[in-house]
């Protein structure tokens, strides 16, 4: 698996075949939700640009990014919506998770309140988002494990009970950041309602079947 850093998608004319295997290109909408200061923006920045800023400013409303992941036989492009965590922006959150095929709910392992808030977001997504949405729970800031307030086993147990993907991450050190997005991409690809579905409603679409032209090249240069 390779991740193409930056906001530009892979050039389609150079991503038709990999080792003679036909490729497909998928595009999925993904939203990040969680309490203020849990590290949503830092996770997005790390994933998209490979960067981390200690003084990352709080998101106002929402921020938008794109990033491309190459799997063995397909290319997945994420449209990433990073939402604001302040309570005053909660009412507009449905505008961003509506039609999303995936969501990452982020909490801070050093703050028990953010874990409780994450559970609230999960319940809301399960009630109001797409029925087949892939939800991942991210316990962020593992670089501050000496200040841990949310135990790994507690969060993992909750994730298993609710059918969530779960990883502990660190936007600062990059631990598990790419792995989380990769796991989401693989799960989306396996979703029976997505594979081979072609263009559909709810913003879910198989953009094109790569291989219509036998152009040489590599995916995600």
Automatic annotation (TrEMBL):
Key word Flavoprotein present:
no
Please list the GO terms describing molecular function. Answer: GTP binding; GTPase activity
Give the source's domain of life in one word. Answer: Eukaryota
Keywords from UniProt, A to Z, are: Nucleotide-binding
Enumerate the InterPro entries for this protein.
P-loop_NTPase (IPR027417), Small_GTP-bd (IPR005225), Small_GTPase (IPR001806)
Looking up NCBIfam families in the UniProt record yields: small_GTP
Record family assignment: Belongs to the small GTPase superfamily. Rab family.
| Entry protein name | Ras-related protein Rab-5B
Give the source species: Cryptotermes secundus
């Amino acid at each position: 698996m390779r991740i193409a850093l930056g906001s530009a998608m892979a050039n389609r004319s150079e991503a038709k075949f990999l080792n003679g295997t036909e490729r497909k290109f998928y595009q999925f909408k993904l939203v990040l939700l969680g309490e203020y200061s849990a590290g949503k923006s830092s996770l997005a920045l790390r994933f998209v640009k490979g960067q981390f800023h200690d003084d990352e400013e709080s998101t106002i409303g929402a921020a938008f990014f794109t990033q491309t992941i190459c799997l063995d036989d397909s290319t997945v492009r994420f449209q990433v919506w990073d939402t604001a965590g302040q309570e005053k922006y909660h009412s507009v959150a449905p505008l961003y998770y509506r039609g999303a095929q995936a969501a990452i709910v982020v909490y801070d392992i050093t703050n028990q309140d953010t874990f409780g808030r994450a559970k609230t977001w999960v319940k809301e997504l399960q009630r109001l988002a797409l029925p087949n949405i892939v939800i991942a729970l991210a316990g962020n800031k593992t670089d501050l494990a000496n200040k841990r307030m949310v135990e790994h086993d507690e969060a993992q147990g909750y994730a298993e009970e609710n059918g969530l993907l779960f990883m502990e991450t660190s936007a600062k050190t990059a631990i598990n950041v790419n792995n989380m997005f990769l796991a989401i991409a693989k799960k989306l690809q396996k979703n029976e309602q997505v594979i081979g579905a072609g263009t559909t409603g709810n913003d879910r679409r198989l953009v094109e079947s790569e291989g219509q032209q036998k152009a040489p090249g590599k995916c995600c240069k």
